[in-house]
Design a protein that fits this description.
Helix content is about 55%, strand content about 15%. A three-stranded antiparallel beta sheet has the order 1-3-2. The protein is globular, with a radius of gyration of 12 Å. It has about 60 residues and is of the alpha+beta class.
Length: about 60
């Protein structure tokens, strides 16, 4: 099964963040993303793994 692709708006809703913050984090490499033409795209499976890593780091006291 192919990974579900998400737009900035979908990721913002999923993470309960503002779209501007998602754009900023994508550009800075803080959230895993890639560009298709001029549009940012996100793989849901990659975002889920990233969330798990963020949870592990916060439990260990890392930023």
């Amino acid at each position: 099964m192919a990974s579900q692709m998400m737009t900035v708006e979908e990721v913002a809703r999923y993470l309960k963040m503002k779209t501007g913050t998602i754009y900023k984090h994508a550009q800075q490499g803080k959230v895993p993303a890639f560009k298709v033409g001029s549009s940012w795209r996100f793989k849901k499976a990659t975002i889920d793994k990233w969330i798990e890593k963020q949870e592990e780091n916060s439990k260990k006291g890392h930023p």
